[in-house]
Amino acid sequence: xxxxxxxxxxxxxxxxxxxxxxxxxVLFYALRALGTSTFAALLAGAVLPVVxxxxxxxxxxxxxxxxxxxxxxxxxGMVISLISGGTRFMLARDGWVTAVAGLxxxxxxRARRPLAYxxxxxxxxxxxxxxxxSWETLWGNExxxxxxxxxxxxxxxxxxxxxxxxxxVMSYTLPVNVVPGLGGLLWPVTMVLLQLVNGVYYRVxxxxxxxxGSGRREGSRSDAAARA
Length: 228
Known about the structure:
By secondary structure, the protein is mostly helical. The protein has two domains: 91 residues, no CATH class; 117 residues, no CATH class. 78% of the residues lie in helices and 0% in strands. The chain contains twelve helices and no strands. α6 runs antiparallel to α9. The longest helix has 31 residues. It is elongated. The relative contact order is 0.11.
């Protein structure tokens, strides 16, 4: 059985990301080519993530936390745009959503488990440089492990806020028809830079030495259950 077979959620997450980012851009330019107004084309693209979340709910009768959060923010932005009728606000919608996500990351730094840890664990635990030790055990035993994920969460939060600021500035200063395409290109740039910065930080901070079984504190395994 391959890794993809064992973790079908990873493939679904990637496909959903491509759909949520790419489909609204394609729809926007297709509708503009057909003569639809800029606001109507943007509104049609804003509906897609909400429709996707609705389809998942109808199929599974449940909505995962992050999907519900994103759909709610998108829906709120769409309602506000309908009330205000502001094309520029609609263009900046992704910036506002990204800013909220960045603030959520920063707000989770002192939570029981920060968002960077919660997002990375299903993708990496037991699959990358691991000796089989549960991440929850490492979280309970290793202060360095906890600090790494809190710092990583700060990195994510700051990066998303910078990305959001760039989107808002673009939305209010650049030609309307240029912004959706540039906004779509900004996503992979932000994600690649985030992965590079985090990858360097994880190596320097010793994350992979911890998950692989080296560099741990003596006696840490004995108090795992008490501190998890």
